[in-house]
Amino acid sequence: MRVALMVTCVNDAMFPGTGQAVVRLLRRLGVDVDFPQAQTCCGQPMVNTGYLDEAVPAVRSFVRAFEGYDAVVTPSGSCAGSARHQHQLVAARSGDTGLAAAVAQTSPRTHELSEFLVDVLGVTDVGAYFPHSVAYHPTCHSLRMLGVGDRPRRLLEKVRGLRLVDLPKAEECCGFGGTFALKNSDTSVAMGSDKARHVRETGAEVLVAGDNSCLMHIGGVLNRGRSGVRVMHLAEVLASTEEQPA
């Protein structure tokens, strides 16, 4: 199986450790992972703000970078959702039948990390070790656009030493939402503060999610409140072992 890592813009620029964790994890599971250097943004910022025509070059770049791979894996429910659902809209609107055909090939093969582990590799126990109490935040796009369901929790429940605690109102949005946080900063901060308060109520040492953009927002509120709660991407927890702890 030829597998490519789509690292995403946020991870590439601000959280490179997450992409590295995905590679360590997948190689430990026997997967040979490529990193296509030509990859760029998936185009989601343009689509989310209504600029579908302007997103065409990004979608065209995506299908060129990842064509020929059996699977594309990304540590982001948000970007996987864009590739699986928004790219079809962009291609159809462009009227370019060649682009639409290419999108039809790449979109179904693009998977958020937990989907790839559970659905494609068929594993829930990835041999991880993480001796901490953890609360899990299901990000909006992973939950509602992709429908990853309980896959991340099933993976976390198999991590040795990890104690998974329930997060009150877990399915409520954290308030980040990409450009929403910029256009509606007061509302965004209020929603993030609610989420951070629920995280503190759990007493968990670590908050885990599948999108670093949401963790960046919630983590900022937690840090300003000096909560002592760490935020970590799911990939980093699953890549952690006794020999190489996170």
Describe the structure.
The chain is an alpha/beta fold and 246 residues long. It has 13 helices and 8 strands. It has helices at 9-14, 16-28, 44-48, 56-66, 77-94, 97-106, 113-120, 140-146, 151-157, 179-183, 185-202, 212-224, 234-239; strands spanning 3-5, 33-34, 71-74, 110-112, 133-136, 163-165, 206-209, 230-233. The strands form 2 sheets. A 4-stranded parallel β-sheet has the order 2-1-3-4, with helices on both faces. The chain has a 4-stranded parallel β-sheet with strand order 6-5-7-8, sandwiched between helices. Strand 7, helix 12 and strand 8 (230-233) form a beta-alpha-beta unit. Helix 5 crosses helix 8. It is globular and about 55 Å long. It starts with a strand and ends in a 7-residue tail after the last helix. The model has no long low-confidence stretch (mean pLDDT 96).
Please give the structural blueprint.
Blueprint: E1 3-5, H1 9-14, H2 16-28, E2 33-34, H3 44-48, H4 56-66, E3 71-74, H5 77-94, H6 97-106, E4 110-112, H7 113-120, E5 133-136, H8 140-146, H9 151-157, E6 163-165, H10 179-183, H11 185-202, E7 206-209, H12 212-224, E8 230-233, H13 234-239
Parallel strand pairs: 1-2, 1-3, 3-4, 5-6, 5-7, 7-8
Helix pairs in contact: 4-6, 5-6, 5-8, 11-12
